[in-house]
Amino acid sequence: MSRLALPVSAGxxxxxxxxxxxxxxxxxxxxxxxxxxxxxxxxxxxxxxxxVAALLVLAGRLGDRYGHRRTLLAGVLGFGAxxxxxxxxxxxxxxxxxxxxxxxxxxxxxxxxxxxLRLCCPPERLGRAIAVRTGAxxxxxxxxxxxxxxxxxxxxxxxxFWINVPAAAxxxxxxLTLPKGQGSSDGRPLDPAGAALxxxxxxxxxxxxxxxxxxxxPGVLPELGCAAAxxxxxxxxxxxxxxxxxxxxxARSRPVAASLVLLLTSSAGLYGTLFSTTFRLQDALxxxxxxxxxxxxxxxxxxxxxxxxxERALRGQGPRRTALAGVALLVAGxxxxxxxxxxxxxxxxxVASALLGAGFAAVMxxxxxxxxxxxxxxxxxxxxxxxxxxxxxxPTLGIxxxxxxxxxxxxALPVLAAVAALGLLPAAALPGxxxxxxxxAVVGGA
Length: 446
Known about the structure:
This protein is mainly α. It has 2 domains: about 5-190 and about 245-430, Growth Hormone, Chain: A, CATH 1.20.1250; about 190-245, no CATH class. The protein has 17 helices and no strands. Helix 11 runs parallel beside helix 15 and helix 13 (about 295-335) crosses helix 14. It is globular. The N and C termini lie close together (about 10 Å). The model is unreliable at about 180-185, about 335-340 and about 440-445 (pLDDT under 50).
């Protein structure tokens, strides 16, 4: 195992996670300096999100075929270059365009961060490596608003993008020290039609979900219908394609499919709850931004502390029991009597935040470990891309569900609890305690 494999994987994942959270603190200053409307400013987030979600699976397949070391290096360097461009952008149009480019490169690097662990970690160390990566992402996401606020106050909004440049350069230097590997063993060309259909379906779906807070569910029904039609065409095409964009061994893997659905429902419940809770704390309870962030701090702490505990539970109890426990904790944090919308006290919010963090840590470690560990040989990048796609669509779905519930932020919690509870079904379909991950050789270089 390369000693730098885990630092590279965690560092690249942290780079993307941090970028998403610090942007929230930069947008008010960006709007003032660039003199743009809120609608145009929103595209700095939407454009990035659509580009990432649309291309993650294709990026993973490219890594499987041509080597994850290459795609990861290209993604990190491109991400850093696009960040520097945003730091110099003269107008909001340039910012939006470069954010889309940043999303493309972000998609290119993300599947490789998971494939790298599968390729470089012995099976007995894979769970621990995934736990470390999960904790690192939690730290980055939790520290993002604070770091962003400090940077914006001291240097202006452009600073939150400039910090990506040295971080990307350092990660790229570490990637270059990793051993070179070979591409996929099957030698089949990528299917451009399938890739285009998948990208289009995902792009339309994510764009539709991202507009629910503004338009409501009725306003996005035509786009949702279009996404459904594209998906139907994709399914027909994939059944006939000689080399489908979602490889048949991956599509037939029950543990992988169950883990992806679990990640989708759990991330939707979590992020929808965070969205609702933030508005409830600040608008209804008149808590300031810093006070709201402090009340939710147990979530980050329990994700960091819970990840290694979840890894131990995964080894001792197996994926099914660990995932079921994680979903139960998550649902309790959303809908229980101590839920974020169930009381105004700091203690109630802290307890609910802790439940959310512990539950999501268990789900993340279990589902990620199952996705990566059970990936059919040669397709670590494909399953990594699918996993990251679920983790991009889930939060967007959760925020759409919260915003579309009506009657205030508190009314969304039962809906979000129901969405999270759906994860009990795929959790129950995961393997039992005696399950052993696939241990076959994985082709496709790091």
